[in-house]
Design goal:
Layout: H1 2-24, H2 26-50, H3 59-76, H4 81-109, H5 113-118, H6 124-153, H7 161-166, H8 172-198, E1 202-204, E2 208-212, H9 213-237, H10 247-275, H11 290-298, H12 301-312
Antiparallel strand pairs: 1-2
Helix pairs in contact: 1-2, 1-8, 2-3, 2-6, 2-10, 3-4, 3-6, 4-6, 6-12, 8-9, 8-10, 8-12, 9-10, 10-11
C-alpha cells in the first residue's frame, strides 16, 4: 500500500508539472509532448521486439517526430485541422511505403542475419510486410495518440470558427489538458486505493491479477468526480463561455473517459505480459516507464479532443 501511495503521488506531481507547462506556453508544452512521446514510443517498440514483433529501431520515433513537426508548422502557418490531418496521413502513407521498400532491400541483402534465420520461409513480400507492420505498431500506438495531444494543446488555433466564437477568452487547450489529467489520475488513484481496501472479485486475472471489479468501479467514480470538478472550476471562472454547457455533459464525459482509462490500463498490462516484462521502461526508475504512468491517459487524448469540439462547437 505504501508503494502504491508513492506511485500515486509521483503521478500527481508529474501531471501537475504537465499542466503548469501548458499554462506557461503551448510551445513549451509541445517540446514536453515530443520528449515524453519519443520515450513512450521507444518503450512500446521495445516491448514489441520482446514479444517477437521487431520493427526497425527508432523508425517509429522518427515518424512521430516528423508528424509532430508537421503539426507545429501547420499551426504556425495557420493551416486548418483538416489540412494538417491530410498532411499527417500523407506522412504515414509515405513512411509506410519507404519502410516497405527498405524491408525488401534488407531481405535481399540478408543484412539482419540473426533475425533472417528465424524467418527463412518468408518471401520478400511477406518479410517486407512483417517488418513494416511491426514498425508501424508503435506508430499507431502510442505515437498517433500523442499527436492528438498536440492537437488538444492547440485546439484554438486549428480553424474551428464556431468553436472559437463559443470559447472566446477561455484557454481551451489548458482546460482540455486539465480535464484529461483530472479524470485519468483520479481514475487511477481511486482504483488503486479502494481496490486495495475493498478487494473482492478480480476484474481480468489473466491479464492483470491485481485489478479488482471494486477497483474498476471506484475508478469510474473517481474519474467522474475529476470531470465534474474540472467543469465546476472552469465554469466558475469563465461563466459566459460555460453558460450553455450543462453539468450532465461532463458527467457523461467522466463516465466514458474513466471507463476507457481502465481499458488503457488493461491494454498496457497485456502488452507487458506478452513481452514478459514487469515495467514498460525505467524512466521513473523503480516506478516504471512513461507508459506505466500514462497508460490510462493515452487512449483518452482523442476522446477529450473530440468531446470538447462536440460540446463547445
Amino acid at each position: 500500500m505504501k508503494n502504491k501511495v508513492k506511485t500515486g503521488l509521483l503521478l500527481t506531481l508529474f501531471l501537475i508539472y504537465c499542466i503548469a507547462l501548458q499554462y506557461l506556453s503551448n510551445y513549451i508544452f509541445d517540446a514536453f509532448i515530443v520528449l515524453v512521446g519519443v520515450i513512450a514510443v521507444n518503450e512500446f517498440a521495445n516491448m514489441q521486439t520482446k514479444s517477437g514483433y521487431p520493427g526497425y529501431k527508432f523508425s517509429a520515433e522518427g515518424i512521430f517526430i516528423l508528424m509532430f513537426l508537421a503539426l507545429i508548422l501547420g499551426v504556425i502557418f495557420g493551416l486548418s485541422a483538416i489540412n494538417i490531418l491530410f498532411i499527417e496521413f500523407a506522412i504515414l502513407g509515405l513512411s509506410y511505403l519507404f519502410i516497405f521498400g527498405l524491408s525488401a532491400l534488407v531481405f535481399k541483402k540478408k543484412v539482419e542475419k540473426d533475425e533472417f534465420r528465424k524467418i527463412t520461409n518468408m518471401s520478400t513480400t511477406e518479410f517486407s510486410f512483417f517488418k513494416t507492420n511491426n514498425s508501424f505498431m508503435s506508430v499507431l500506438y502510442p505515437a498517433v495518440f500523442f499527436i492528438f495531444l498536440g492537437f488538444l494543446n492547440h485546439i484554438q488555433n486549428l480553424g474551428f470558427t464556431t468553436f472559437n466564437e463559443n470559447t472566446s477568452g477561455v484557454p481551451m487547450g489548458l482546460f482540455g489538458v486539465v480535464l484529461l489529467f483530472a479524470i485519468c489520475s483520479l481514475t487511477d488513484t481511486f482504483a488503486m486505493i479502494f481496490g486495495t481496501l475493498i478487494g473482492g472479485k478480480k476484474l481480468c486475472p489473466s491479464i492483470s491479477p491485481k485489478k479488482t471489479i471494486s477497483g474498476a468501479v471506484s475508478g469510474i467514480v473517481g474519474g467522474t468526480i475529476g470531470s465534474i470538478a474540472s467543469y465546476l472550476i472552469f465554469s466558475a471562472i469563465f461563466k459566459t463561455a460555460f453558460a450553455t454547457i450543462y453539468f450532465w455533459q461532463f458527467l457523461i464525459i467522466g463516465l466514458v473517459v474513466s471507463a476507457i482509462a481502465e481499458v488503457g490500463d488493461l491494454f498496457e498490462s497485456y502488452s507487458k505480459r506478452r513481452a514478459n516484462v514487469k515495467d514498460s521502461g525505467d524512466f521513473f526508475r523503480s516506478h516504471g516507464g512513461v507508459l506505466d504512468r500514462l497508460d490510462s491517459i493515452v487512449f483518452n487524448i482523442p476522446v477529450i479532443f473530440i468531446s470538447l469540439l462536440f460540446i463547445f462547437g
